[in-house]
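User: These chains co-purify. Model them together.
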Amino acid sequence: MTQIPVLPFERSRHDDRVIAGVCGGLASTLRVDATLVRLVFALLSLAGGAGIILYFALWAYDGGRRTWPGAVLIAAAAASLLLALGLSGGAVFGVGLIVAGLGVILIRGGSMRQGGSLPKLTIVLMVIGAAVLLGHVGTSNSFIGPGAVLGTLLLVLGPWIWQLWREHLERIRLEERAEVAARIHDSVLQTLALVQRHADDATRVSAVARRQERELRRWLYGSGFGDAVTLADALAEAATDVEELHGVRIELASAGDLPLDESLEQLVLAAREAMTNAAKFSTADEIAVYLETDGDHIAVFVRDRGVGFDRAAVPADRRGVAESIEGRMRRAGGSATIVSTPGSGTEVELTLPRAAQ
Amino acid sequence: MIRVVLVDDHELFRAGVRGELGTTVEVVGEAGSVTEAVPMIRELDPDVVLLDVHLPDGGGEAVIAAIAQERPGVKFLALSVSDAAEDVIGVIRAGARGYVTKTISSDELNDAIVRVSEGDAVFSPRLAGFVLDAFREGARVGDDAELETLTAREREVLQLIARGYKYKEIAARLHLSVKTVEAHVSSVLRKLQLSSRAELTRWAHERRLI
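Assistant: Joint model of the two components:
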């Protein structure tokens, strides 16, 4: 049995309480004005006393101190609201069964998410509930009935959707963070490493630093990525940069081109990182880069004839390949394949489906 | 010994190439313009002419146009820093057996000259990309369907060239002999030169405007 999620609601214990502080607490949880909440409760009280029952329910619940009495009272409040809205007793019973089914999920720890499993009891309860509900909706007040059902479902599913949304936001935040980290890794950390290695070469160091400053400014305040407007141009720019920074030769070929957009920029950045890796680690003095676009995909190949590497031997804390190439392509909706044999070079294949654009 | 005439308007570059060519290749003459090159090639009758795409009084195309008909034995290999598709496709259509960029390594250049002298075609990755683009699937088919499309195998070979694979590596990867790979490339070259499709030239020009 899993932990039942605790709703972040507590009675207000401050001066703004009128009766038991339920409205004040709810207002601060929802970050709305307490008067508005009180008004809603007053209106709900007119609907068969639902507001009053709900008030007692939340009072009982009070931050998870008394969960079960709270749950039962909330169910009673919902039922009286539905009855007041004109739903027949049978329909309310159907809704109740559906809600019970959802409740089982909470207790048994099933999931309605993709790939999650539903408890059998939930399915049974929900199917019967739906049948009972459909059997009664038509015979009762036909206009308000469906609306009330919808409202109830929203009420029941609301917290669950809210939680999914929160997780979604969190995921976006993590992805953004990973992207910033990858960007810093590609640019600033690389430049700092270069500066350390060529500390005695003042011209080179200042050139590299200037370039880095330009890039960072552009990323922070400007259009974000170069002046190139097409994918092939942006790849050529990236290739020139890598040539300049690492003194290698990059042979660039392309079949087809596309206007640059956000996911293609990610593709260019991943390709740039692949070129940088080849320039730094392969010992090959020439790198071949090929861009291909057709009806359903975009592919970039980065190949060198250098020493190659054994993927298993790369320390896990080296972020270059995992984050800047593979992670980046994944986030952009594509994929990266790295084929390398020690002694006979490396080829990185980056692909992006056209649909990902 | 393969006899080569070098046509390029940059003295320094010619000296560089001369120094890089190995023992199998001998530079018998050098020219810096179309007017200089044409009589020289007629007189020396070399095996291979190494030709810059851009020359002050015309271009590689003009040299090929003046010579190719009367001297079918002379092979042309275009050498350029130019990245423009129209230049590359133009000089190939005029009759060059191959196109390499000036950044090519000495070994590869020697190899390319030998190959061209033997009648094979030499494609740089860039040229392979251009050709794949020009012969895009779904493009309109002209009078002679065979000349207008690439076979799946030809496409595969060209794609690997574009990805920087050498003929030997392509042969190993596709389980073919090097000879077969060469045959595929020569076949593509023939299509490139004989294809009547106006698209090819139009494509090359339009490509600049993207």
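Chain B touches chain A through 21 residues (CB under 8 Å).
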